[in-house]
Specification:
- The chain is an alpha+beta fold and 379 residues long.
- 51% of the residues lie in helices and 18% in strands.
- It contains ten helices and twelve strands.
- It is elongated, with a radius of gyration of 45 Å.
- Keywords: ATP-binding, Nucleotide-binding.
Length: 379
């Protein structure tokens, strides 16, 4: 409007006492200084922008409200009607503040809701986690990044607690089951006459060794050798040591073959003591059920290193074979509690590898140890 006032004066426009755009002489004093917040601030800004400029508001021609402006002390007033809108009315300001408050409250409610939804679900799942159960649907559902991280951390914690609960149950029930039979035999022998007691001495020693072996297996299952450091070994040299153990301690006849290129070492990153326990378990089963003979084969390629150990026993039934591959081997008469299979699978998981069982075509059980390329490398 100030620019319009300057433009009309510079073009020589004449004074107009009537119409929608009116003029008043510089000596006139139309209206009064605005006292409403919006127009009062506008008047102050106008004076800062153009010294001598003024803005006034007054009633003209009945109920009409006019706004008057001049560009300087010697310039005429330029007026225009602003009715019926009241720019400075309290009702207008209250409406603006109400809209701002409503939008602010709505935004705050949406933000709080996005945060509270995953937190509320975490709180609902907490009792299940405390009981050792693993929530199947505990997944992030949005919200801030920190809440998503918290959800993933609690999910991981729930899985760890569930795993520990299963291991505790397995440890307690397994030890109780496995030790009950030899302890019963020892208790019976203690009530025999002296002569019969001495005759049972060798059998009692066997029972004691069996209990010691059982306890060692269960403790190994719980510990899993996950604290052992990873080392780089040469597969040929390490397997020569395993063959010596198989011959000396398990009286096995060992045959060996590999497809490693001549003069090229084959390296494997592993936990040697933990991996040795896998081989010892397989050697022990071969000694007991596999006919005392074993073939060890090594096949490296760009994807993995495969070590296959095959015995020449009768093999196992399809149902028993499936249970072994699933790691849920139940107790079989004369075959222990299957803890050795669980130990071997746990150790292979530590190596990010896999353990598989299958019956050989011409008889016997074949055990496949597969190590991925990130754990092994050929030079």
């Amino acid at each position: 409007m100030l620019q319009t006032d300057h433009a009309l004066i510079s073009s020589g426009a004449q004074y107009a006492p009537t119409g929608n755009l009116q003029w008043r002489p510089a000596s006139a004093a139309p209206g009064k200084a605005p006292d409403r917040y919006f127009l009062h601030k506008s008047a102050n800004y106008l004076q800062q922008m153009a010294p001598g400029a003024r803005l006034r508001v007054g009633a003209e021609e009945g109920n009409s409200t006019w706004m008057w402006i001049r560009g300087g002390p010697s310039q005429p007033w330029l007026g225009m009607p602003v009715s019926p809108m009241d720019f400075g009315g309290q009702g207008f300001m209250f409406m603006r503040l109400s809209v701002i408050a409503l939008v602010t409250l709505l935004g705050a409610w949406l933000i709080v809701r996005q945060i509270n939804r995953p937190l509320a679900r975490l709180a609902a799942e907490a009792p299940r986690i405390g009981l050792g159960d693993t929530p199947d649907t505990l997944e992030p559902i949005g919200g801030p990044l920190e809440v998503q991280h918290l959800t993933r951390a609690i999910t991981s914690m729930a899985n760890d607690l569930h795993h520990l609960h299963e291991e505790r149950t397995l440890l307690l029930t397994g030890i109780s089951h496995e030790l009950r039979t030899p302890l019963s035999r020892l208790l019976l022998a203690l009530h025999l006459p002296d002569v019969d007691f001495l005759e049972q001495k060798s059998a009692m020693c066997v029972d004691v060794n069996e209990m010691d072996e059982t306890i060692d297996k269960f403790l190994t299952l719980v510990r899993s050798n996950d604290q052992e450091k990873i080392m780089t070994i040469d597969v040929r040299d390490w397997l020569e040591e395993m063959q010596a153990i198989a011959r000396e301690r398990y009286a096995l006849q060992i045959s060996y073959s590999d497809r490693i290129p001549a003069g090229s070492p084959c390296f494997l990153q592993c936990r040697p003591l933990a991996l040795e326990r896998v081989f010892r378990n397989i050697f022990d089963n071969t000694h007991r059920y596999g006919g005392g003979r074993m073939l060890i084969q090594v096949t490296p390629n760009a994807q993995h290193i495969e070590i296959r150990l095959r015995d020449y026993g009768p093999g196992v039934s399809p149902a028993h074979l499936l249970a072994m591959n699933l790691g849920i081997l139940p107790r079989q008469s004369g075959h222990g509690a299957g803890i050795g299979v669980r130990i071997c699978k746990r150790i292979m998981d530590l190596h990010h590898g896999s353990l598989g069982f299958e019956n050989a075509v011409d008889g016997g059980l074949s055990v496949q140890l597969l190590f991925p390329t990130d754990m092994g490398k050929t030079a």
